[in-house]
Amino acid sequence: MFRSLLIATAATGLAAAAHAQDSGLYLEGGYQYLDIKPDGAESGVDTNGIAARAGYQFNNVFSLEAELATGIEDGEFDYNVDEDEFNFDDNNDGDLGDVIGASGDVGLNYLTGIYGKANLPLTERLDAYARAGYAYVDLDASLVTPGGNVISVEDSADGPAFGAGMSYDLSENLYLKGDYTYYSFDNTDTSGVMLGVGYKF
Q1: Which segment of the chain is annotated as a signal peptide (predicted)?
Q2: The pLDDT of residue 8
Q3: Which of 162, 167, 181 is nearest to 125 (CA)?
Q4: Going by C-beta distance under 8 Å and a sequence separation of 6 or more, which residues neighbour residue 199?
Q5: Which secondary structure element, helix H or strand E, spans residue 32, and what is its range?
């Protein structure tokens, strides 16, 4: 009887400890690659940045997290847009219906969002996860037109975002992670990959 009580007490303690480790605050940071495709661009623009995330894990399945990223390297692109979109007569012919074929670069000022995250343990150390939420991006672009004019444009957009990734525990608190996110913005389609490290408190 006494032995059974000891075993039951120990099992309860271990279960409580395991549950405690499945909840709490976590922080993540790392490299952020973004492929940004503004309206009018012929193809996406590759940019490099850094990202940070802070979240709270409520149990071993569900978390809520916030994300903030900023660019560290602009991406080059070719741009085709009607003059009337900028209200700008590049060739001074009095017709704003001409198409400007310009080259330039796009920079990420910042990208922020909030997400719900669902975790799926695959092994003792390896987890898969999916996340969904809402994000906001702020970009700027610099164009050099065929007429030799330089146009600076700043734009922002917001929309739903969806992604999936994997994490691998290096220790009880430290882990590696990598994920893909698609940001469904009205004026800019953006997809991103983050590779980084995280710490569970």
Answers
A1: 1-20
A2: 41
A3: 167
A4: 26, 27, 28, 173, 174, 175
A5: strand 24-38
